[in-house]
Each structure stands twice: as C-alpha cells, then as structure tokens.
Design a protein that fits this description.
The protein has about 90 residues and is mostly helical. Helix content is about 80%, strand content about 0%. The protein contains 2 helices and no strands. The chain has helices at about 1-30, 45-85. It is rod-shaped and about 70 Å long.
Length: about 90
C-alpha cells in the first residue's frame, strides 16, 4: 500500500513539476504588444511566428492536461486500493 501511495505521489510530483516548468517557460516568453486599432497589419513572418507560438501554447496545455489526468488516475487507483484493503 505504501509503495502504491509513494508511486502515485511521485507521479503527481513529476506532473506538477512539468506543469510548473512549462508555465515558467511561458512567462519568460516575450509579451504580446497591446492591440492598436490603427496599426498596420503585421507582416506575414510575424503572423507565422504568432501561429507557431499559439501552437506551442496549445501543445503545452494539452501536455499539462494529460499529465494531470494521469496523476489524477493514479490517485484514484491508490484510493480504490486503499478502500479495497480496508474492506478486506
């Protein structure tokens, strides 16, 4: 039982560390300038860079979501095992 709990805790720690690292990386990324209603549209290269950055953010969000889902499932498994151990 303690091994399963430790393993679940380790998976949660790894998932949270990954999420925190990605959030930190995103915070260090250059900020998007304020919108200017009268500004000229950005050149195509800037739009491509924006699209790339959006894709990176979406991928990081999906990875973080998947990591947290795996960690939550691990916690559910440990809780189910604990309940089964108490009943038996």
């Amino acid at each position: 039982m303690a091994d399963a709990t430790t393993a679940a805790r380790d998976r949660l720690d790894r998932a949270l560390n990954t999420l925190e690292r990605k959030i930190h990386e995103l915070k260090l990324a250059p900020a998007v300038p304020d919108d200017d209603l009268f500004a000229l549209p950005p050149p195509p290269a800037a739009r491509i860079e924006d699209e790339r950055r959006i894709a990176e953010l979406e991928a990081a969000g999906r990875e973080a979501s998947e990591a947290l889902a795996r960690a939550a499932e691990a916690v559910r498994e440990v809780l189910a095992e604990a309940e089964a151990g108490e009943v038996a």
